[in-house]
Structure formats: structure tokens, C-alpha cells
Design a protein that fits this description.
Blueprint (H helix, E strand, L loop, with lengths): L2 E3 L1 H16 L5 H8 L2 E3 L5 H24 L5 H22 L4 H25 L7 H18 L2 H16 L7 H17 L4 H21 L4 H17 L6 H19 L2 H5 L7 H20 L4 H19 L5 H28 L1
Parallel strand pairs: 1-2
Helix pairs in contact: 3-5, 4-5, 5-6, 6-7, 6-8, 7-8, 7-9, 8-9, 10-11, 11-13, 11-14, 13-14, 14-15
Length: 354
């Protein structure tokens, strides 16, 4: 079975092969033999985009119709309307799958939207407590099941987004059991999707958000939370394993940058009674963090450089805003950003040329 590459990666591979052929390293026959294992992806499919936008418009029209006639519909008619719409959408997707796969996929997305809207409408019909968090949980589970049944990457990513909305809207409630269930389900789904990089990325982010929720739920000081995440980020970056190492390392750098950035503020260290000079401590942490991130930049990594830029701008705003003419302040800030942009572009060009 051929491995499908994105159009950009496929054409890059072809150029590299031809370059090696011109240097006499490989022959035409070897290129042909190697390229039999790859095929070019379709890129952005116009039909899929068109059908997806059409499905979204249908979903919005459905919601608009329901909203405008809701008060005039009986309880039974409301339920029948919701179930019929969901059934028609799902059945249409199933029937069209063989000959019109792009349209069928778009109808599947429409079904997930109707399912979610139906959950919220059902809450109104039966006068539930008005706690919409549970609706988001059920919506997440429903979309997750649909993604597994149809092996659809977009749907499982959407399930992750819904799960994060559920968690963020429930930070003051006990959702430990349901969140652990979702994490287990997501990691199980990752195996089903052959540990796709983007799905692993979203699952790891959701798991880290659960840890943040857990630490916040038990009222741990924000300084300790930042330190814990900083340590986790370092662990994710340096520990070796076989689960999409590059993706996990990227997340690790991001966590180090975000948590380290939080630790550069004096207010965080004020929370700890045993820190005598929180202002000095914050500055030392900030300088140390910049030095560390610059050491990662030496390995031609762009993400650490973005955090270095953010830190420099943070200190620039803190120290210069009240002491410089505003016009000069903004001009200098703009020059700093342009300088970083120039350096990052050069870094990316060098990476592309290797």
C-alpha cells in the first residue's frame, strides 16, 4: 500500500530525488522503484470545502428554523424534528459514502452538529437543571464514537475541542472521573488512528489541561503549578520514548515557555513566604530562562525563539513604557519585532535548504 504524502512533501521528495540523480548518486530506475511506495495527496479539495460549507449552512439554517418556531411546537414534535433531522443526515452520509465520499463526509460533520444542538434542545424540552456542561460531555462522547465508526480525523479533533470546552466550563466542579474516562478513550482512539501526530498533540494538550484542572481544584498555589508544569515540560523534552517523540518534544518546549514566562512575574513569588526578594528572584528566573531558550535556538528551533521574543518584549514594556516618549517606544518595539521576524525567516530558510 502506497503512503500518501501531502502535495508539498511529495513534490519536495521528487525534487530531492532528481537532485540526487543529477549528482550521480542514484539512477532513474532507483527513483522509479522508490517512488512506487509514495503517492501525492489531493491537497485542498474544492468539492470537500464546498460540501463542508454547505453542510454548515444547512446546520445553521436548521438551528434558525428550530429557534424561530420553538415556542409554537409541541414537545413531541420537537423531539421528532430533532431525531428525524439527525437520522436523515446520518443515513444520507451512509448512502453517499461509496460514490460521493466528500459529500458524505460533510454530511457526517453536519450530523455531529445536529447531534450537539439536539442535546441542548433536549435539555430545554425536559427542563433539566440548566447545567450545559453535561451536554458538552455527551456531545464529546457522541462525536468520539462517530469518529471511530467512520475513522474520521476531523471528528476526533472536534471531540478534543468539545472535551476542552467541557473541562474549561467545569473548573469549579468535580469532573475527575469523567475527565479520566475521556483521557483513556482518547489514548485508545490514538491507537486506532495509528498514533497520528496531530491527534497525539491534541490528546496530550487535553491531558495537561486535566492536570491543570486537578491542581487548581485542590487549590495549589499558582507558583507551584507553574513549577510543576515547568518540570513536566523539561521531562517531555528530554526523556526518550517511541510515542511521536518530535510532537511530545514540541509540546514540552511550549510548556517550558509558558510556565517559565509565568514564573518571571514577581507576583508569583510573592505567594511564597520563604522568598525574601521576590523581585530579584523573578528577574533571575527570567534571565536564566532566556539563556536556556537561546541554547535551544542554537539547535535551530523556532518555538524557543518565539518565547525569547515574548520575554524581551515583556521586559521592554515593563521597564520602558513609563520612561520613553510613546512614539519612540512603539518604534523601538516595532524594530524589535522586525528583527526577530527577520531572524526567524532566515532560520526557516536555512532549515528548508538542508
Amino acid at each position: 500500500m502506497k503512503k500518501r504524502l501531502s502535495r508539498l512533501n511529495y513534490r519536495f521528495l521528487v525534487r530531492e530525488m532528481n537532485s540526487q540523480k543529477e549528482k550521480g548518486i542514484i539512477t532513474n530506475q532507483q527513483i522509479d522503484d522508490m517512488m512506487t511506495y509514495y503517492e501525492e495527496g489531493l491537497g485542498l479539495n474544492f468539492i470537500k470545502v464546498l460540501a463542508t460549507v454547505g453542510s454548515i449552512l444547512i446546520g445553521l439554517g436548521f438551528l434558525s428554523f428550530i429557534a424561530s418556531n420553538w415556542e409554537h411546537m409541541s414537545k413531541l414534535l420537537k423531539i421528532i424534528t430533532i431525531l428525524t433531522s439527525l437520522g436523515v443526515s446520518m443515513l444520507s452520509s451512509y448512502k453517499l459514502e461509496k460514490n460521493y465520499s466528500k459529500t458524505a463526509e460533510s454530511l457526517l460533520y453536519l450530523s455531529s452538529l445536529i447531534f450537539g444542538a439536539g442535546l441542548f434542545l433536549m435539555e430545554q424540552i425536559f427542563n433539566f437543571s440548566g447545567d450545559y456542561n453535561q451536554a458538552f460531555l455527551l456531545w464529546t462522547i457522541g462525536v468520539l464514537i462517530m469518529s471511530l465508526l467512520f475513522k474520521n480525523t476531523i471528528l476526533i479533533l472536534f471531540a478534543h475541542v468539545l472535551a476542552m470546552i467541557y473541562m474549561f466550563s467545569s473548573f469549579n466542579e468535580n469532573i475527575i472521573v469523567s475527565s479520566i474516562f475521556l483521557i483513556i478513550a482518547f489514548y485508545g482512539a490514538n491507537k486506532y488512528f495509528s498514533f497520528s501526530k496531530i491527534i497525539i498533540f491534541f490528546t496530550t494538550i487535553f491531558s495537561l489541561n486535566f492536570l491543570l484542572y486537578l491542581l487548581t481544584y485542590f487549590n495549589l498555589e499558582s507558583t507551584y503549578i507553574s513549577l510543576i508544569f515547568f518540570a513536566i515540560g523539561l521531562g517531555m523534552y528530554y526523556l526518550k520514548h517511541n510515542l511521536n517523540l518530535d510532537t511530545i518534544k514540541l509540546i514540552g518546549v511550549m510548556i517550558v515557555g509558558v510556565s517559565g514566562f509565568a514564573l518571571t512575574f514577581e507576583g508569583n513569588w510573592n505567594q511564597l513566604f520563604y522568598i525574601n526578594r521576590p523581585d530579584v528572584f523573578a528577574v533571575v528566573v527570567g534571565i536564566s530562562l532566556i539563556v536556556y531558550l537561546l541554547s535551544l535556538v542554537r539547535n535551530r528551533q523556532i518555538v524557543p525563539l518565539l518565547f525569547v521574543c515574548a520575554l524581551i518584549l515583556r521586559y521592554y514594556f515593563d521597564t520602558m513604557y513609563d520612561f520613553m516618549p510613546k512614539s519612540l517606544f512603539f518604534i523601538l518595539g516595532g524594530l524589535i519585532l522586525l528583527g526577530f521576524g527577520y531572524y526567524i525567516e532566515g532560520l526557516r530558510n536555512n532549515q528548508g535548504g538542508e
